[in-house]
Amino acid sequence: MDDSLNGLGSKKVSRKDFLDLAVAASAGLTAVGIGVPILTYIWPPLEVTTTAGQKVKIAGLKDITPVKAKAVMFNNKPVLVINTGDNFIALAATCPHLGCVVKWDEPAGKIMCPCHGAAFDIRGNVLGGPAPSPLVPVPLTKAADGIYLG
Amino acid sequence: MSYLDLVQPTAGDRLAVRALKATARFLEDRIRLVSLVDFLASKPVPHDLNWAYTLGSVCLFLLANQIVTGVLLALYYRPAISEAYESVRHIEEEVTCGWLVRQLHAWGANLMILALCFHMARVLWYGSYKKPREINWLIGVGLLLATLTFGFTGYLLPWDQLSYWASKVGTEIPGALPVIGSVLVKVMRGGEEITGATVGRFYTLHTLVLPGIVLGLVFLHLAIMRYHGITALPGKEHSRKVPFFPHHVMKDAISIYLTLAVLYVLVVVSPWKLHEKADALVTPEGVKPEWYFLWMYQFIKYFPQQIGFMSGKVVGIVLSSGVFGLLALAPVLDFGEGRLIQQRKLFMSLALAVLLGVLSLTVLGYICERDISLLGTTIHFDIKGFPEKVTGK
Ligand code: HEM
Ligand code: FES
Question: Cystine design at A115: which of A81, A100, B19, B82 (Cβ 3.0–4.6 Å)?
């Protein structure tokens, strides 16, 4: 066939090139078609926290005496609730270093991590050890009938 | 009647031999099975191969032990957090021989990693990864990584305090990597935390994915090894050859039976305890990973929070993973032709330095956060493994 008759200009796409491209494209499409559902399936779905946007009662007012603390599960995560004497504080209890659960050390007046010795003050600020960031506060409400998180 | 009369074949014997021969002929005619067995058994190997050359077969035996005991455990184990711990307790306490099967699996896993290290050390020592065997060495590194992943995923399954917290900290470590860290953690855990979703994932990896990968790699490993032939001892390339069966097979069998003996002694003398059931609110004191990850765990502890613009943890993780990179690159780093130690001084010194580093970190990882009593003195080692307080008693 004469090249000049080809509407695509001087560069003629041969039948073979076209088929090569078509085969490569369908192979790619098949790979995407198989891969996308697998990858999205592996990615965990949004966690259904029954308590999203909802306040949850975790203790009565008298359950945690000063200066004691209680560890509770909130939205699948451990939270440390401390009675400071004049107030209640709630902090995410997962140590920002490698994920151990911190403890309130009453005699020392500090929050300590049992794993690699990170220490925090009662507000969660880092005092020492390997923790790269402070403990994050969790919203807490003190109501007439008890303590609520969320 | 003489002794000879006793060993004269009877009519029954002759029939049995005829039946065997007919079966062999049947299989040979159709799938060439006799030729294949013959091919494998008659492989010529140097007559002077030493005991270190049986370590690969020891790995193979321990792998078989893991598969048999693993399949048996799967009959009673339940991969859900409401039942996992109880099902393991049930296996230990109520199932007939359940304790034996569980302990063989737990100890077998540890011995397998140890045997892999020794097998690798022998390949390294004799420079057996040199051309043309580089690819088989890489397959070996793949097997090592897969086996370590076996150990990591299996450790969570009993769902006791130790397994929960070791897995929590273990999955947290890659989370420090920039950008991909949080994605990795979420994919490994199947969510933000270690939950039933994590057990499901680890169980699937441990019982479906990894066995497939390892069996495939082992098949390739052995096929390539048969194809190349085993390396001779360095400097003894021209020593006399003998058929693989029965000469080397006998040696292999002796090593395997020795391993079996060690395995049974460990199972009986020092069984793995099932600790208290996992509690996501209480981290026990002195959480540590299994011994084969201790060196990495300990290494990361020596890094400060921040190094320049990078987190110290990340630097520690990257540097310690580098050991596997070095391992994979051994055939490149050790590029000379010679396999004798004196021809590989530089590389062998590097290998020795890395080995000593890993060993000392493992020891530090073991003694840290522990009281060690020696000659009436008790020394407490702190988190970094430094002796802290001495209490004379
Ligand atoms: C499931 C794990 C493994 C099994 C069952 C296995 C099995 C074997 C066997 C039976 C041999 C024959 C010679 C011998 O026993 O020394 C062998 C050779 C070899 N293995 Fe492994 N192995 C495993 C893991 C590894 C690892 C982790 C490495 C190194 C990273 C490795 C590297 C090699 C190499 C390079 C050879 C050839 C050595 C030569 O030709 O002299 N293998 N393996
Ligand atoms: S996990 Fe808390 S200090 Fe390491």
Answer: A100
